[in-house]
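Feature request disguised as a bug report, sorry. It would help if multi-protein outputs had a clear separator. Right now it looks like this:
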Amino acid sequence: MRLQQKLILLTTLSKGLMAAILLLALPWVVQSLVLRHTDDALRAELRQVQARIRQVGIAEFLPQHATAAGRRTHYDLLQDEFIDLEAITGLPAPDTIGTFPRRQHDALVDFRVLRHTDRYQGQLFTFEIGKSIASIEEVYSLLRTLAAYALAFAVLTTLLFELGVIGYLLRPVDHIVERLRAVRGPTPPDFPPLRTSTTDFQYLDASIQQMLTKIQSVFEQERQFITNASHELLTPISILQNRFENMLRAENLPEEAEAQLVTSQKTLQRMTATLRTLLLISRVENNQFARTERVAVREVLTDAVEELEDRISDLQLAVHWSLNGTPVLQPANRTLVFTLLFNLLSNAVKYNQPGGELEIGGQPEPNGAYVLSIRNTGKPIAAAHLPHLFERFRRFDQEAAEGYGLGLAVVRSIAQLHFIHISVASDTEHGTVFTLRLPAPVGY
């Protein structure tokens, strides 16, 4: 999973968790706020009643035919609120606020009640100011709904904002990945500095550029060494071959010495082939071959199969063609393309089983690219060996004495020069399949 996807998932989960916690706590919070607001309103009404009593006297709040002692309860029109005044004896009690039942229309209804004791004209009175819980619940329900909508809006808004910010902040990562994908060989393209204000990404980009430069330097040294060493070794090998040939022309040469000379000649020939292959790889990687031709891939495949006809006949292999369309490489070097395809077909024949199959197939893509596959039915390659298949001097079949593991290294170098993506898959059911994705010809 990509870093951006992980951050988006983390943000979404955190927002979801926050919303869940707030939704669980929302009823208690809203209820507490509504009750606190109701209690403050009851206290304000009490202060208004006390002010009215100081203005007109306590008698105005008592029954008309009562003296200082008496009780009076007044409800509003909808009976959602009441004020109760009662004369009492005893000691003053502290103010209390709570929920108590009151009889209303022959039914008990819960009220939020404020109780206050005060002395007027030498008489102790208890005031009760109440508000129906049902009316409070209406406000509570309204506030809860509004709070839920506000919470959902806030979560969605912040989530969308954070997703946009995450995408913007991580955009340089996509640019860095695109740059790394554009590197198809030891010589990286010349990229301008990454445009970002994030110092971490600037440091990462600079470090990658330094790493690519160092890798390029190491590869250049290796190429130069291989080129020089190959040239230097070819000369003494050529001299030794000439000497061996002269010695073989001697009339009095013993048979044992003649056999040893022939064996030495074969060894020198293999060394020469290896050195010439290393020189070819070095020249390809140094981009010393011109790519100015338009190469018909079907024609090159046909020529390669014809050269391998004797080996195909010896193993009695069945060759199947299923090339659709007209695969073309342009610009390309026909000699190198032939070497690439010949090496793949040669391996497909060499590591096949007698009476097996060799299948050459291909399919064009809508964008002009072409997918070419070469499949054989020989012994499958172990999965652990597949990542190292194109490395130099890697030979996984120890029974095969031929070759030094440079054929597929040549294939990889030529493929990189022509921007061909190559992959391999192998199993017991389908055999070994090399897949090449040829780029669209220039001007397609």
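(second protein starts here, but nothing in the output says so)
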Amino acid sequence: MITTAYVKKMAAYNQWMNARLYEFAAGLPAGEVSLDRGAFFRSILGTLHHLVNGDTGWLKRFASSPARTRSLDPVRSLEGPVTLDEIRFPDLAGLRARRTLLDTAILEWSDELTDADLGTTVQYVNMKGEAHSKPLGALLMHFFNHQTHHRGQATTLLSQAGVDVGVTDLLALLPDVGR
């Protein structure tokens, strides 16, 4: 399975990449962020909303799991998404503030988790009303993989808008070690 070192690295990567995406998106001319580009979530704004909605839903589930910690307190009070494609913030600034709150909570939570926590079971009901019980470690693998997948879509949409976001690989955060 995974370790807390993995979770911490992925939380740092998540925060780094999200900050970069929002920085590049904020530099676009007015209207470009919400322009329908024919993507699954239509626009850059729609794709970024999907990530915030998905992360909010998962973090609320994690906040009620046996591994809950105080670092997820800010997430507990957030209203959960009704759908994964809903647009809650009409502009990038509001969405960016929520993204920052979530990324801070994820990073702080990753520092508080123990390897034993990763083996605990999270019981939850998905948006279709289906009940599930899964190991927290496996859910975190999905959580970070989902973010990476949709950030890849967002970078494609930014590329279509004429923006080169540069290196997006986790490799950029991995330190070189002696030979």
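Even a blank line would do. Unrelated, but nice: The mean pLDDT is 94.
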